[in-house]
Write the structure tokens for this entry.
Amino acid sequence: MVVSSLSFLAGVLLVQQFHALPDVKWLIPCAIAACIMAWLRFWRSLFFIAGILWAILFALDRLSDQLPKQLEAIDIQIEGTIADLPEQDDRHVRFDFIVTATEQNLPSKLRLSWYYPNQEVKAGQHWSFTVKLKQVHGSMNPGGFDYERWLFTEGIGATGYVRTIPKPVLLKQDSALASISVLRQKITDQLSATLGDSKSLALIKALTIGDSNSITQNQWDVFRKTGTTHLVVISGSHIGLVAGLVYFLALRIWAWTGLLVWSPQKVAAFSAVAMGIFYSALAGFSVPTQRSLIMLAIVMAAIIRQRNTRPFNILAVALFAVLLFDPLAVLSAGFWLSFFAVSLIIYAIAGRLGNPGYFWEAIKINWVTSIGLSPLLLLFFQQVSLIAPVANLCAVPVISLLVVPLSLLSVMIMFISPILAGKLLFWVDQALQGLWWLLVQLAAIPQSTIIHTQPSYWALFFALPGILILLAPRGIPARWLGLIMFLPLVFTDAKKPEASDFRMTLLDVGQGLSVVVQTANHLLVYDTGAKFSSEYDIGQGVILPFLRGQGIRKIDRLIISHGDNDHIGGAQSLMRGIHTEEVLTSVPQMLSGYAPIVCTAGQAWIWDQVKFTLLSPPPQEFVSENDNSCVLKIQSEHGAVLLTGDIEAEAESWLVKTYGNDLKADVLIAPHHGSNTSSTITFLQAIQPAYVLIPAGYRNQFGHPHKDVLLRYRNIKAKSLNVADRGAIQINFRNTPFTLQTMRETESKYWNAKLQH
């Protein structure tokens, strides 16, 4: 069963590498091949082909449930149900919406935002909305989060927002017995009422009902640095622990009653499975809980039927069942981390001679998972916590043996005896506050986390067998060779530009701007995109992941062109996340805590034979803040780039009069996102760019880039590329002519929005 499940996994995984799904007619020869394999009893080949077929059919069905292009940006009347717990911040509430009635051909599931709602939005509510929708679209950046992939795996066919006119109408509210999502809503409301403004409220919600929406970015940073993120989500270990506790209690209690019509083992097994289903449902049946629940059911079925089971066979059945239920699970990091962690534990613990005892076995499991998961953590997150073994050794007993059992017990009795539940939650709160203090101290240790370039698949190819050798039983010679096979991971490094070369990446940050410029030994960031809420901005959501993926640990110079949110919003979180040597800006008062230098025309420096010159603003500033943007020219022997911020006609006219032909550049970052108040014809004629790169958001509210501006670009024979259509755009000034590539051309998969020409 192990090889068959892995063959099925290989087939499913192969389909996820496709840039486009094959035509339906190609499924016929695949089905014929599967029949031949079945007739010849080549079971492993059959499972491989079956994985391909199932993944393609599942993906085709999911892709068919998406918004037609002609329904974008028009008012549509819909009715439906809030599917799960909404996400709320100070500006809006975001939620998944199941459509039950509409006159249009809409996807069955939407992701909607309601700005400044005048009513509470809860799971299980039935609403009548007027909405404006758009097709699934997200930013695409190297090392960044693929929002389009996430929406696809969640079955969301469109995103949009609720119109306040006509006024939304609440039709009805489901009862707590109607669905598990309504029960989760009732529980989260009761927890909020019981714990008030406790600092542990968000963690308790995460551990009881899988609601991590309230966990702050600072808390996530601490968990990431200490390697304890897995403890604040309902993971397989939590399911197994709670089910094991229920099994033990049911076994003892049933035996004590003397009612032996059913054996205590069978009663305990059924009770454990029931608790596992309940706890998994509270977590929304995430991939780790699916895996754990299936494994639990198999083990309990073996106890009921009095059969022996092999751990890897159980894991293989769980793998096959998860993929059969949702083949798109392979697109999530949680799928790989969950199954690989359990595989490592089975490999390192099961079938070994001797009985080390629970304490030493727990230490071994902690060490095994910390070492064994490091290659995957580098692949997915480009970082590994060095203090994770110590942090987990302290945190796991507190969370697993105290916090989770007491929290679940509180949840089960809070509607019967709120006072008793409140007392139990008080002790849970105290335990979590003590643990949090310890984790904060550990996270503050210098160099507690290794940040490294994303490893290649070749490095992983050597590292994974190295793990098996390193964790092999004692007595097997030369286990130290496993460490040697880790070396390709350590020495993986992103290729840097040579001297006199430079690389510029215009990141896809929606309606905003952020540019990263790399020379042989230096790095510059120009603008940091927008801040959307207290918990998310472009600095920590896009720029930091990009820099980590490149193995960059320091910014030599950060330039903030001016004070608009879509240019300065991510600056503070970026500087908190990575050491920044120097800050230049036209608005020093907005970054006073970072000792900024005022950018002024005439400032210049040379890095690795590449010249950087600030052309504007002049000492006598313009009236408009946009016109006072820091304008930067970068020039090497292979080409030149002009970064203009949000300058408009007045600043453009001054630049032409002041510099004339010296403005000439091969690449122009479109002023003010392609606004009609910028990109005057005299300015463009002075620059004569071959390419104009436009940092505008998909279907943005300002209509950027303006059609007249695009016509001007065409009239000067410049090729214009918009990040909304192309994703991040990277130019290597390494040769003459320079090379240009875009994310949607090189990295898009079948679920990504199609490249717009």
Remarks:
- The chain has five domains: 2-63, 69-174, 182-309+353-451, 459-490, 502-746.
